[in-house]
Structure formats: C-alpha cells, structure tokens
Design a protein that fits this description.
Number of strands: 14
Number of helices: 11
Shape: rod-shaped
Largest sheet: 7 strands, mixed
Helix content: 40-55%
Distance between the termini: 124 Å
Length: about 525
C-alpha cells in the first residue's frame, strides 16, 4: 500500500497540481514581467533626473562640454543635449543589463541554488519567473528604446530649431545693421577699421572676461552665460541705453574701446583735411560748440559719445571762449572726436577726424588715414593766410596781421596729395560732397580788400578765392573731383557768453545734412 501511495498517488497528485499550475503560471510570469518593466522605468526616471538635473559625478560618463579655453557655457542644444543623450544611452544600457542580470541571479539563488521550499515546487516557480523576466526584459527594451528614440528625435528637432533661431536672429540683427547704414560694421575710432561686431567685456565687476563674438549661436540665443554665470545679451537690440556693454575693437593691432553707442545708430564720418595750423582743431571745437548752443535753443540734442571726446571738448570750449588758439594736433593717429546728435530714431553717431597737417604732405603718412574710405562728406580747411596772394594784397595801412598764425603748407599741395590718397582707397569722390571752410574769418575783419563775402554765399566765395587769392586751379580741381562742392567762410571763435560765430552754424548744418 505504501508503494502505491508513494509511486502512484503522489506522482498523480503532483502532475495534477502541475497541470493546474500551468493555468496560473502565465499570470505569474506576466506579473513578474510587469514588475521588471516598472522597476526599469523607475530606475530610468531616476537616471533622467540624475543626468539632466542633478549632474552629480555618479551620473557622468562623458566629459563635460566645456573646454578650458571657452569663456562661456554652451547653449544646451549646441552640444550638451547630445552629450546627455549619449550618457543616457550608455548608462541606460548598463542599467538594463545590471537590473535584468540581478533579477535572474536572485531567482537562481532563491529557486534553484538555495530554495526555501521543496525543489519540486521551487523549480517550476523559478522557471515561470525566468519566463516572466525574459518577457519583461524584452518589453522593457522596447519601451526604453522607444523613449530614447523619442528623446533623440526631440533633441534633434530642438537642436535644429535652436540653430534656425540663431540664424534668424543673426539675419534680423544683420538687417537692422544694414538699415542703420552699417553693412560692414562699426567704425573703430582708434584704428579706423570696420568692426563687424565688437568684443564685449562681461558686465560682472569681478570677471571682466572679454567675449569676442556674442551673437546668437553656440553660447546662447538671447543671452550668453559667461563662465562666471553672468548673463550677457547676444544682440545689440537687446541692450538698453542704460545696459550697453563696453565694446572693444576686435583687431589684434588695436583692441581699443569702441563708443558705447556704436552699432545702435547710423554713423556719420567727417574728415577734416588741411595743412598744419590751417585751423582744423579750432573749427572742430566750434562745430561741436555750435551744436551745443543750438541744442540749448531747442535744436537737436547733442552729447559727447565717450569720455575722451568729453574731456577734449571741455578744454577746447575754454580756448574758444578765450578766443585763443589751440595747440597743434599731434602727429600720431588721432582718435575720433565723437558725439551723438539727435534723439530717438533720429540719433546719429558722428565721428569728426582732426588729423595733424603733416600727414597731408607725405604720401606715406596719408596712407594711414583709413577713415576716409567710409566718408561721404569731406571738409577741406583752407587758410587764406597760407596763400602768397593774401600777403601781396594786404593793405599796409590796415591793422597788422600776425603772420605766425598762418599755415605753412600750400593749400593746393595739401588738397592734391589728400585726393590722390583717398582715390587709392577706392572711395568714389564723385559721389561725395566737399565743404570748403575758409578759416580765420575773424582775422580778416580789419582788411576790407581781403575780407571774404558773406559766410554762406558759396558762389561769391568761389569767385573771391579764384580772383582775389589766385586759387582758380584749386577751385576747378575741387569741382572735378567731388560731386558737390560748397564754400563757407568760417570764424571759429566764441564770445564771452559762449556763443559761437554764426558762420559755424550754417557750415555745420550743411555738413551734417542727410
């Protein structure tokens, strides 16, 4: 009887239980598979949080996208997003392999190696769990692969969108620059080169890193994040008047500060040409002073564009009011005397260049005057006292004229050499205007025979220069070289109240006419 029970009834009952278990096993396998999928998804979410937000060392498998020579953090979609995707792919694969391996190892230990129940029951249960883990691993691989694929697609689309946005912003910025009359960039007031885009210092007082190109791109779209974490605007149109950064020339031979207003408004370049002691500096000072007088009486607003121009103008104003004479301009290349004229959309950044007269005598010296390439209006300062005919016609009975105040360079020689140099710079003088400022009018008032006509009577001045001073050839050359020529008789002096001679106002208005 014992044999029947042991060899027949027990096996029959065990087979019956196995048969019943076959109906339950799929459910157990499915539940185990779902548990594995849920476990993997939970750990993947933790991985996402660690890679994308926490960024602690345990989640870093690819070196950061931050070379030591970079001054700013890269925009997320210009490298770091791809890096994070690579890290997720690498660590996600490791996570799946490790989790599934650990699950199989635990089943093997609990159900086969050291089961807590009889092997007759643990082995079928272990095989069921094996099946569930296999199905779950396959389902998890499909789900996680889909998630990674969706993320990769999202990164690709957003990265493409970021690049398209950067190109669009650059195009808008370029269009604005063209509309402002700056298709080739801003003029450096020190080296006279066109700067496509200035370099800017970080606005943080403790950083001062200099960023060579802040335009939208690799390091930011609307804002660039400096290595010190300070935010820097990427477009000139994003800089308000009170938040304009300090711009610098990008050329290695220069690197000098640009005007704070550079790029924010159209630029006007006004070169003063003339021999030594012709009165260029005095005339420049009187021009700015006249505009300041006009602004006080309701005319266009004016403000000096940089500290150096402000300091120079303050000194020159004192000289004008004392009716003295400025010291000779240094032979070194000058920095532009810059000011902002007008307000709102009518603002213009005006650069007046006062260059030493010696540079207009030697061809090697005038080659350095690169600012003339960008000018559309030129000022030729003509000192009548530098012409021999002035002294031969001088009335000996009239007031004495101090000959030491006269320019020592022949105006015809200065003009011809300057025009030759400007032509070599591919400047279309036939499209440019020339204002001829006959200087030192205040010194001619005591000489009726040599006193020039009315300050703004261009035709009478033309005749006076041709017939009285014998400059007919010079006048004809001016008419042949330039598209428009106008003559003015100027007195660069101011009275005790600071009001400049009226002849300057008419002259300045014509020079700065649109």
């Amino acid at each position: 009887m014992d044999d029947i029970v042991f060899f027949v009834l027990i096996p029959a009952a065990y087979l019956a239980l196995l048969l019943l278990y076959l109906f339950v096993a799929p459910v157990i396998a499915a539940l185990r598979g779902v548990a594995l999928v849920s476990q993997l998804l939970g750990r993947y979410c933790q991985l996402l949080n660690g890679v994308l937000r926490l960024r602690t060392d345990e989640f870093v498998t690819v070196p950061p996208y931050r070379p030591a020579d970079e001054l700013a953090h890269r925009n997320y979609f210009f490298g770091p997003a791809t890096r994070d995707l690579r890290q997720l792919l690498t660590q996600g694969r490791r996570l799946c392999v490790r989790t599934v391996t650990d699950a199989y190892r635990r089943v093997t230990t609990d159900q086969f190696t050291a089961p807590s129940m009889n092997r007759a029951f643990s082995i079928p249960y272990g095989l069921t769990l094996y099946l569930g883990l296999g199905v779950g691993a396959g389902a998890a691989a499909l789900v996680l692969g889909t998630l990674l694929a969706v993320q990769a697609l999202g990164v690709a689309l957003l990265a493409g969108g970021a690049r398209l946005t950067a190109l669009t912003l650059r195009a808008v910025d370029r269009t604005v620059m063209i509309l402002r009359g700056l298709p080739r960039g801003m003029l450096c007031p020190s080296c006279f080169e066109r700067v496509p885009y200035p370099a800017y210092d970080c606005p943080s007082a403790i950083c001062r890193r200099r960023h060579a190109d802040i335009r939208p791109g690799t390091f930011g779209l609307f804002r660039r994040r400096c290595a010190c974490d300070e935010r820097v605007p990427t477009l000139l149109m994003l800089m308000s008047r009170n938040a304009r950064l300090s711009g610098y020339c990008v050329y290695e031979h220069c690197g000098e500060p640009m005007n704070p207003d550079a790029g924010h408004m159209p630029e006007v370049i006004l070169p003063l040409i003339g021999g030594r002691a012709a009165g260029k500096t005095q005339l420049m000072a009187a021009m700015v002073k006249s505009l300041e007088n006009s602004a006080e009486n309701g005319g266009p607003a004016i403000r000096l564009a940089d500290p150096e121009s402000t300091t120079n103008q303050r000194v020159l104003n004192e000289v004008l009011e004392l009716q003295g004479h400025t010291r000779p301009t240094q032979k070194t290349l000058p920095r532009a005397h810059s000011f902002v004229l007008g307000s709102g959309r009518a603002e213009r950044l005006v650069h007046v260049f006062d260059t030493a007269g010696e540079r207009f005598v030697s061809r090697e010296e005038t080659d350095a005057l690169r600012y003339a390439r960008e000018a559309r209006t030129f000022v030729f300062v003509l000192d009548p006292m530098a012409v021999d005919a002035f002294w031969t016609r001088l009335d000996p009975q009239g007031p004495k004229v101090d000959r030491t105040l006269a320019s020592t360079v022949d105006p015809e020689d200065v003009f011809s050499r300057s025009v030759q140099t400007i032509h070599t710079m591919d400047t279309r003088l036939d499209k440019a205007r020339l204002a001829v400022a006959v200087s030192k009018r205040d010194l001619l008032t005591g000489q009726p025979t040599l006193l020039a006509p009315q300050p703004d009577d261009s035709d009478a001045l033309r005749t006076w220069l041709s017939e009285q001073l014998g400059l007919r050839n010079l006048v004809k050359t001016m008419d042949l070289q330039f598209g428009e020529v106008r003559f003015f008789c100027t007195g660069a002096v101011a009275n005790e109240t600071g009001q400049v001679d009226p002849s300057i106002g008419v002259f300045v208005e014509w020079c700065l006419r649109e």
